[in-house]
Amino acid sequence: MKNIKFTNLERQKTIDNLEGDEFDLIVIGGGITGGGIALDAASRGLKVALLEKGDFASGTSSKSTKLIHGGLRYLKQFDFWLVKEVGSERAIVHKLAPHLVLPEKMLLPLIENGSYGKWLTSIGLKVYDILAQVTGDDKRKMLEKKEAMKLEPLLPKKILNGAGYYAEYRTDDARLTIENIKTSLLFGAQALNYAKVNDFIYDKEKVAGVKATDETTGKEFTIKSKFVISAAGPWVDELRSLNNSKKGKQLHLTKGVHLVFPYEKLPVKQSCYFDIPDGRMMFAIPRGKITYVGTTDTNYNDNKDNVRTDLADAIYLISAVNNMFPDINLELEDIVSSWAGLRPLIHEEGKSASELSRKDEIFVSDTGLISIAGGKLTGYRKMAERVVDRIAKNMEEEYDIKLKECFTEKIFLCGNDDFKKFKHVKKYIAEIYDRIKGDKFTEHDAWFLVTNYGKQTEVILDNYAKIVEKDKYVRLAIAELAFGIDYEMVQNPMDFFIRRTGRLYFDIDSIRTLMKPILKEFQKRFGVDDSVVEEWKSILKAEIKEHSDFSLERR
Question: Whole domain around residue 190: which residue ranges?
Answer without folding.
Answer: 8-60+174-250+359-410
